[in-house]
Amino acid sequence: MCVHMKKLGTSKSYSETHGLFLCDGEKLLSDAVDNGAEIETVITAIEIQLALPKNTRVYYAEINLINSLSPLKNSQGILFTCRIPQNSGADSFSGPHVLLDGIQDPGNVGTIIRSAYAFGIDSLILAEGTADPYNPKAIRASMGAIFSQRFCVMDLCDIQKLKHSGKKFLGASNDKKCIDIAMVNLNDTIIVLGNEGQGISGELLALCDEMVTIRLSSSCDSLNVAVAASIIMWEAKK
């Protein structure tokens, strides 16, 4: 059990093979329960005040053991595993979509998931090469939105199918010559946000109908991608 929990927090391939991800903290556990997540196992050093789903396995352990298994430097005293929900297609969602193309920092991915939920974005698409949304850092940064925000992982072929279905693609850029995002109708569009250092990949750039930008002061070149995504999503749902 201990080796299993440890690997879930450190190995993406192991997590995907078992269809489970690892979380740490009472607040996250409460969010998981509230959103009907399929919780499999809980290991805790403190008394749990929540009504857990039926058949959840609960084990009590010393905090030192939990700290050794936790992906955090200092565990909050509760570790639990959840089943990864089945991937759903973006074509089943309405409204503006946001597509993450090769965003590598799991903290940025988690923050974007949190903002997407806050602004009511129906569909968040994670292209190949984007950090794992079930990485412990992404889960923490999402502040529980990982259990409530709908998103899907798509390969290039599936993304191209969206384009062929008639979806309009808008690429986000820091080029001041691009169209001001505030001047564009974002309803029912797919807004592409690229890698932190390299921007949008050539394959997805070729799908973009227009390039848009956030107007910044002349002395500022760019924004953190999670900050930019949050502004764009606010504009999309404004």
Strand content: 15-25%
Helical residue percent band:
25-40%
User: How many independent structural domains?
Assistant: 2
- Side by side, the strands of the main sheet go 7-6-5-10-8-11-9
Mean pLDDT: 91
Q: How would you describe this protein?
A:
This protein has 238 residues and is of the alpha/beta class. It has 2 domains: 2-83, Ribosomal protein L30/S12 (60s Ribosomal Protein L30, Chain: A, 2-Layer Sandwich); 90-237, SPOUT methyltransferase, trefoil knot domain (Alpha/beta knot). The protein is 33% helix and 21% strand. A 7-stranded parallel sheet has the order 7-6-5-10-8-11-9. It has a 4-stranded mixed sheet with strand order 1-4-2-3, with helices on both faces. The model has no long low-confidence stretch (mean pLDDT 91).
Structural features:
elongated; alpha/beta; 21% strand; 238 residues; seven-stranded parallel beta sheet; 60s Ribosomal Protein L30, Chain: A
Provide a brief overview of the structure.
The protein is of the alpha/beta class and 238 residues long.
Task: Produce the secondary structure layout.
Layout: H1 2-10, H2 12-18, E1 20-24, H3 26-34, E2 39-44, E3 57-60, H4 63-69, E4 78-83, E5 97-100, H5 106-118, E6 123-127, H6 136-142, E7 151-154, H7 156-164, E8 168-172, E9 179-180, E10 189-193, H8 202-205, E11 210-213, H9 225-237
Parallel strand pairs: 2-3, 5-6, 5-10, 6-7, 8-10, 8-11, 9-11
Antiparallel strand pairs: 1-4, 2-4
Helix pairs in contact: 5-6, 5-9
